[in-house]
Here is the input.
Amino acid sequence: MLSIVAVAAAGFAFVATNGSGEEGTLQTVSRPQPTPTETAPAPVVRKPKPKPKPPAVDRGKVYVEVYNNSGIKGLAGTTAGRATGAGWQVVGSDNWYGTIPSSTVYYPAKLERAAKLLGKDLGVARLKPAIDPMRLDRLTVILTADYAG
Here is the structure.
């Protein structure tokens, strides 16, 4: 057993001195320094293309009818005048017979954006899809007693 330890120690000394036969001096082995690696380019993040904005509403190309569903005389006529003054193409005003809970701008699907703008122009917050017997080529405004105008 002692001889195995002696052979192992001799082998260790031989490797440590790099077989030079000089005892007590150790050879250092230099390792090549790693070269700086180029950093990988950052991945390209593609932002989704913004959706094109729809064209602005041309008030003069949108037909509007204004109806009075309140007991206030002349409400439809004066409101129609305000709408015309804002640039809308008012094609009629009259009385509405039926029950409407509050002043409303009714619109066909293709004129929803225009209805929002007309509602802002007139101060009418309630917007609803058009119903029968309303025409589907125009906005219909029905004013009730809650309309402050």
About this structure: The chain has two domains: 1-27, 62-143. Helices lie at 2-16, 75-85, 112-122. The radius of gyration is 44 Å.
